[in-house]
Amino acid sequence: MRKIPTSQIENPSPAIAQKQEQILQGAIRVFLQEGYARTSMDRVSAEAGVSKQTIYSHFQDKEGLFKALIERLTIACFQSIFCIEKLQGDPAILLRQVAKIYLTKVADNPDYLALLRLIIAESQNFPELAKLYTQTVVQRGRQILSQYFASHPELGISDPEAMAHIFFGSLVSYIIVQEMLYGKELISLSRDRLVDSLMNLVISQSKNIQ
Amino acid sequence: MRKIPTSQIENPSPAIAQKQEQILQGAIRVFLQEGYARTSMDRVSAEAGVSKQTIYSHFQDKEGLFKALIERLTIACFQSIFCIEKLQGDPAILLRQVAKIYLTKVADNPDYLALLRLIIAESQNFPELAKLYTQTVVQRGRQILSQYFASHPELGISDPEAMAHIFFGSLVSYIIVQEMLYGKELISLSRDRLVDSLMNLVISQSKNIQ
DNA sequence: GTCTATACTAAGATAGAC
DNA sequence: GTCTATCTTAGTATAGAC
Asked: Where in this chain does the record put each HTH tetR-type domain (chains A, B) (predicted)?
C-alpha cells in the first residue's frame, strides 16, 4: 500500500481508513474550534488519540490535513442541506421549507457554522477551499432556487438569478450577523419574521402581474 | 506622561501620538493581510519602521495592539459608509444610492473588506470586537434603513426591521460571496442587477396597497 | 504502522545600553 | 523613549526504536 499524500484516497484498507477517520475526527474538532493557525499538531494528536507521527504518515503536512478535512466537511455540509434535489410544490410552502432547512442545518449545527467561519477566515490562504465551498454549497443553493423561480413564471420574477441571490443571501447574512457576530444579542429578529418577510417579497411580485 | 496600556488614549503628546500612529499604520497592513495568529510582532515592527520594544511601550501586548487597531478601523469604516446621516428623498433613487455607497465603500476598499473578514475570523476569540462591529456598522445600517422604511408607509412594508435586514443583508452576503469567496469567478452577478432586483422588490410591495 | 524522543525554527515578550 | 540583543516557549516536522 502506497503512502497517501493528499486527500485523494484510493481503495485504502479498512485498517488504514479507520485510522484516517480517527485522525480526521480529532482534527475536525480542533481546527473548527481554534482555526488553522492556532491549531497545533500536538493538540490534534492528543484529540485524535494517536501519535503525531501517525498523522504525518497519513497526511503530508498540516496543510494537507486541513485541506482533506475541509473538503470532507464541505461535501457533508452540502449533502446535509440539499437532501432534496428537486424543488416542487406550492411556492408559499416550499420556499418557507427551503429557508427553514438551510437555517436549521447550518445555524443550529456548530460544525457547519464553524466551517463557514473558517472558509471565510482562510479564504486568502486557501482560495481553492473557498472556491470549493462557494461552488458546492452557495452556488448550488442559488442554482436550485434560481431554477425554481425560472420555472414558475406565475411568480413574476424578472431576474431569477438575482432573486435567488437575495433569497439565499439573506439567509447567509442572517446566519453570519445574528449567529456569528452576536447580532441576536443586540436586536432580536426571529427566523420566522425573516422568512415571513422574504415570503411576502416573493409573493408580492406575483400579484403585480395578475 | 503615564504609560498607555490600552487603546484608551487621553491627551497624548504630539510626539507620542505620532509614534502610535506610525505603529498602527504598519500594524494595520500586516494584520489585515495575515490575520491575527499569522501576524508576528517582528513583522509589525519592520513594517512600521520601529523596534519591537517601542511597540510594547505603546501597547500592552499583541492583543492590545490588535484591539486598538480593529476599534479604530471599525470607527473609520462606519464614518466612511454613513457620511450621510439622514435619509430623505424618493425611495427609488435614495435606496439605490444607499446600496451603491455601501458596495463601493466596502467592496472596493481592500482594507474594509479585510476588516470584515478579520472580524468574522476572530469572532470567537474576540467577541467584543465582533459586537462592536455589529453594533457600529451592521446595526446602524439596518437601523437607518428600518427607520426610513417605517417613515414611508406608502412603501407598504409590513415589517421594516426585517426588510432592512433583507436589504442590507443582501449587500453583505454579496460582498462576502462574490468578493471574498470568489463567487464572481463562478457566476457573474453584477451589482446593478442585484440592486435592480432589490429595488423591484421594495417598489412592488408598494404597488399592492394602491 | 505506530510510538517516543528530538532537531530546528519562529514567535511573544523582556533586559539593559544609550 | 527608543534601540539591540536575548530569553523562553511552543510548534512543525523528522529520526529511530519496536
From this structure: 17-77
Residue B17: predicted pLDDT: 77
Q: Tell me if B120 and A120 make a contact (CB, 8 A cut-off).
A: yes
Task: Dump pLDDT digits (tens) for B69-95.
Answer: 999 999 999 999 988 767 777 888 999
- Asked, for residue B1, whether it belongs to a domain, the answer is no
Distance from CA of A25 to the nearest CA of B (A): 21
- Chain B partners of A161 at a C-beta cutoff of 8 Å? 187, 189, 193
> In percent, how much of chain A has pLDDT > 90?
81
- The per-residue pLDDT for B95 is 93
CATH code of A28's domain: 1.10.10.60
Contact residues on chain B for A121, CB-CB shorter than 8 A: 35, 117, 120-122
Cα pseudo-dihedral A13, A14, A18, A20, rounded to 10: 20
B2 within a domain of the structure (yes/no): no
* pLDDT per position as a tens digit, A79-111: 999 887 677 778 889 999 999 999 999 999 999
Does B143 share its domain with B165? yes
If asked whether residues A120 and A199 sit together in one domain, one would say yes
Judged by CB atoms closer than 8 Å, whether chains meet at A134 and B186 is answered as: yes
pLDDT of residue A205: 78
In this structure, which long-range contacts are made by residues A171-174, counting pairs with CB atoms below 8 Å and at least 24 apart in sequence?
A171/A99, A171/A102, A171/A103, A172/A138, A172/B169, A172/B173, A172/B176, A172/B177, A173/B165, A173/B168, A173/B169, A173/B170, A173/B172, A173/B173, A173/B176, A174/A103, A174/A107, A174/B165, A174/B169
Tally the domains of chain B: 2
> Over 70: is that where the pLDDT of A184 sits?
yes
Smallest Cα distance from A159 to chain B, Å: 7
Same domain membership, residue A101 and residue A55: no
Which positions 158-187 of B are in contact with A (Cβ < 8 Å)?
A: 158-159, 161-163, 165-166, 168-170, 172-174, 176-177, 180-183, 185-187
**Residue A182, by phi and psi: left (phi above 0), alpha (psi -120 to 50) or beta?**
left
Residue A19 sits in which domain range? 14-60
Least confident span in A203-207, B23-27, B99-103, B194-198: A203-207
Which range among A49-53, B82-86, B181-185 shows the weakest confidence by mean pLDDT? B82-86
> The domain spanning residue A174 has which CATH number?
1.10.357
